[in-house]
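Supplementary Methods. Inverse-folding protocol.

Structures were first reduced to a discrete structure-token string of length 378. This string, shown here, constituted the complete conditioning input.
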């Protein structure tokens, strides 16, 4: 008998609009302004799904850590002495104190600022002054509360659910899809934080279409034709595809490549930029010479914190042809153009005159993103 072979259907790229169903409309106002819906999103999406909190290169050495806030919970993400990446609630087991106030840095151990209980990087309680005199006190029962953590292509994801669906299962549609982009090895050259006065869903809807590009992004539109998008992921939690880049150019201020290719990029992909949204909080933009990643963090119905990183090939950094600012400035400009129209949208949507408006065929992906979102929030 010949061995059974399993074939995975690779979705074909289809022009934006081909997957469009007429009649799709933008979300009703309450989804973009209501504190109750915001609280529900935090409970049923951000507290139960895998969310991206960063990249391995942020904590490259043992003891490196950063903190992250997920669904109102402060978390510590640390690389321990054995290079295992771990996540803990930022909560002391003595009287609950916030252990770490900084955004990131280096730990030898995690020490509480209140009464100096000290934890190892694996979360175990190592020292608790005077507690040896407390009858029945067992350090082993007072480790930091760990959170579920998993890696995907070098990105660190956490899940606050007690028994989450394993990340590999959720991310199965993306298995192997981006391997040649070398994502786990890349290093961030820059992070910019944006505080945007708009609902987080407007950020996703904006990212998922280029209908707005001719008016909003004149520089971008010169380098990548606004109506050229082709998508291979058109429904579900992962959405997107590519847009061609004008031959011989790169998405930078000068239009030239700014670094070594990030990975083993083949043929026509040298002239393509791939844009994918990864539900619920990650935007992954892969260019031939760099990768840009946005983390999207809802802070209130009308406010979103966006962390944007620019990642490059680790060997690009020491070379004379490394010009990261060429890419960073280009997208910082483009990002701010996007946030501005998202803020204007938020203002208009908050009006009593707002009613859901019809999506165009060029907005098939935002319509699909809304459908995915509504599966959770209803
Ligand atoms: S609250 Fe942390 S040591 Fe007392
Ligand atoms: Fe845009």
């Amino acid at each position: 008998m010949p061995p059974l072979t399993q074939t995975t259907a690779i979705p074909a790229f289809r022009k934006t609009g081909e997957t469009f169903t007429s009649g799709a409309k933008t979300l009703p106002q309450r989804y973009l302004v209501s504190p109750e819906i915001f609280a529900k999103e935090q409970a049923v999406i951000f507290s139960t799904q895998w969310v991206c909190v960063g990249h391995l290169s942020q904590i490259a050495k043992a003891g490196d850590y950063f903190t992250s806030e997920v669904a109102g919970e402060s978390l510590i993400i640390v690389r321990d002495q054995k290079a295992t990446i771990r996540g803990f609630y930022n909560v002391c087991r003595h009287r609950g104190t916030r252990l770490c106030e900084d955004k990131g840095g280096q730990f030898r151990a995690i020490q509480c600022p209140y009464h100096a209980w000290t934890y190892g990087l694996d979360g175990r309680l190592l020292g608790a002054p005077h507690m040896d005199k407390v009858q029945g006190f067992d350090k082993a029962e007072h480790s930091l509360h760990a959170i579920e953590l998993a890696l995907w292509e070098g990105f660190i994801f956490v899940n606050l659910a007690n028994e989450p669906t394993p990340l590999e299962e959720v991310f199965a549609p993306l298995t192997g899809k981006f391997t040649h982009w070398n994502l786990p090895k890349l290093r961030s050259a820059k992070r910019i934080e944006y505080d945007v006065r708009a609902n987080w869903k407007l950020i996703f809807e904006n990212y998922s279409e280029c209908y707005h590009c001719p008016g909003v992004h004149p520089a971008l539109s010169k380098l990548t034709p606004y109506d050229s998008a082709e998508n291979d992921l058109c429904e579900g939690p992962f959405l997107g595809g590519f847009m061609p880049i004008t031959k011989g150019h790169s998405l930078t201020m000068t239009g030239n490549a700014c670094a070594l290719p990030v990975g083993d990029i083949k043929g026509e992909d040298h002239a393509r930029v791939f844009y994918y949204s990864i539900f619920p909080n990650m935007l992954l933009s892969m260019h031939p010479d760099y990768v840009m990643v946005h983390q999207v963090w809802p802070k209130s119905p009308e406010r979103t914190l966006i962390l944007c990183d620019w990642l490059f090939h680790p060997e690009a950094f020491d070379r004379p042809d490394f010009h990261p600012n060429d890419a960073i400035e280009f997208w910082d400009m483009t990002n701010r153009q996007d946030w501005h129209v998202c803020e204007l949208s938020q203002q208009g949507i908050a009006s009593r005159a707002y009613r859901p408006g019809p999506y165009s065929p060029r907005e098939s992906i935002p319509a699909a993103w809304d459908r995915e979102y509504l599966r959770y929030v209803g």
